Amino acid sequence: LDVTDPEPLPADHKLLSLSNLIVAPHIASATVTSRTQMALIAVRNLIAGLEGRPLPFQVNL
Predict the structure, then answer these.
(1) Per residue, what are the HEC states of the chain?
(2) Rounded to whole angstroms, how far apart are CA atoms 32 and 35?
(3) CB 26 within 8 A of CB 7
(4) How would residue 15 be classed by pLDDT, with cut points 50, 70 and 90?
(5) What's the maximum distance between 2 C-alpha atoms anywhere in the chain?
(6) CA-CA-CA-CA torsion for 48, 51, 54, 56, nearest 10 degrees?
């Protein structure tokens, strides 16, 4: 698992006792390619926002 809820899991969480499970520290996107793309997305959003344009990668939560 790369993402859990809650994150991090409590030390006594049942999932952590499973011998056939690996819990990663939310690092699945930690590649040069993905981090470069995330940076470019952030910059494009920043420029659009500063210019008063709609954000090209807006997320509505």
Answers:
(1) CCCCCCCCCCCCCHHHHCCCCCCCCCCCCCCHHHHHHHHHHHHHHHHHHHCCCCCCCCCCC
(2) 5
(3) yes
(4) very high
(5) 52
(6) -10
Per residue in 16-27, pLDDT tens? Answer: 999 999 998 888
Catalytic member of 1, 15, 26, 39: 26
What was the pLDDT predicted at 28? 81
Give the position of tokens 């981090």. 35
Residue 23 to residue 21: CA distance in whole angstroms:
6
Query: Is 26 a residue of the active site?
Result: yes
